[in-house]
């Protein structure tokens, strides 16, 4: 299948610049001099063995983990600078986790409405309109009044995606969003993510779903032991124009 067509990249300067990031947990060197650029409209997929640092890298971008070296720029701002207020940056960076983390006492619509109302000061009526629009975008328009325990795992994850989109982020981060799902629910979440990529949403995705990577990724970044081993276009990566180590990993995943 040919990769999807995404919006043309219109700026020379990357939206996201990760420059020489180092991260330690105690004596464990988790990220080692990691550098990635992500341009507006790109979908970049991070792959690699478990424990290679992929999720930690995302958490550093979303300022959930402090870096121990290097810098991260989002637009023209160094977001790893000491004076940065993390919650203000997160208003422009949406993140979807492995677990849906929905509020069980709130309906799907209310989960989506909460941040626009409390953070942006949006009226309940306007937030409700946005929630209904986003539930349509993630293909569950009839689930507005359903509570999380009335939804399948795939539906809950799509509510989580809609909740992130409600803040109108410039960048979306996905940390293995289908890893907790049954196989039959994975496709429905990946289809929504593919739609968003096709519409030009800038995204960085940690996943083992190579079908999604083939369809949606502009670039594939292969990590191992905290290092970036490969940074290639989707066409080159799946066409075999990669290192022997990356090819072995790909063969294991595909076969």
Automatic annotation (TrEMBL):
The lineage of its organism: Bacteria, Pseudomonadati, Pseudomonadota, Gammaproteobacteria, Enterobacterales. Pfam families: ABC_tran. GO terms for cellular component: plasma membrane. Its main location: membrane. Belongs to the ABC transporter superfamily. It comes from Sodalis ligni. InterPro entries: AAA+_ATPase (IPR003593), ABC_ATPase_HisP-typ (IPR030679), ABC_transporter-like_ATP-bd (IPR003439), ABC_transporter-like_CS (IPR017871), MetN_ABC_transporter-like (IPR050086), P-loop_NTPase (IPR027417). It is found in: Cell inner membrane. It is a peripheral membrane protein. One of its GO terms (molecular function) is ATP binding. This is Polar amino acid transport system ATP-binding protein. Residues 16-250 form the ABC transporter domain. Keywords: Amino-acid transport, ATP-binding, Cell membrane, Membrane, Nucleotide-binding, Transport.
């Amino acid at each position: 299948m040919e990769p999807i067509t995404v919006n043309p990249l219109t700026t020379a300067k990357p939206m996201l610049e990760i420059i020489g990031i180092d991260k330690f947990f105690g004596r464990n060197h988790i990220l080692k001099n990691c550098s990635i650029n992500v341009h507006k409209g790109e979908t970049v997929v991070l792959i690699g063995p478990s424990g290679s640092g992929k999720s930690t890298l995302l958490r550093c971008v979303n300022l959930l983990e402090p870096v121990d070296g290097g810098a991260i720029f989002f637009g023209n701002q160094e977001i790893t600078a000491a004076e940065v207020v993390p919650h203000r940056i997160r208003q422009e960076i949406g993140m979807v986790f492995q677990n849906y983390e929905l509020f069980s006492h709130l309906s799907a619509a209310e989960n989506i409405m909460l941040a626009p109302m409390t953070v942006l000061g949006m009226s309940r009526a306007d937030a409700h309109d946005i929630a209904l629009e986003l539930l349509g975008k993630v293909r569950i328009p009839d689930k507005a009044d359903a509570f999380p325990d009335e939804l399948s795992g795939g539906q809950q994850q799509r509510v989580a995606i809609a909740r992130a989109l409600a803040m109108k982020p410039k960048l979306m981060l996905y940390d293995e969003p289908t890893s907790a799902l049954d196989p039959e629910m994975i496709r429905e979440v990946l289809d929504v993510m593919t739609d968003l990529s096709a519409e030009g949403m800038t995204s960085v995705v940690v996943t083992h779903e190579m079908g999604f990577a083939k369809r949606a990724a502009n670039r594939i970044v292969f990590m191992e032991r905290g290092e970036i081993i490969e940074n290639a276009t989707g066409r080159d990566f799946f066409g075999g124009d990669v290192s022997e180590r990356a090819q072995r990993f790909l063969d294991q995943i595909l076969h």
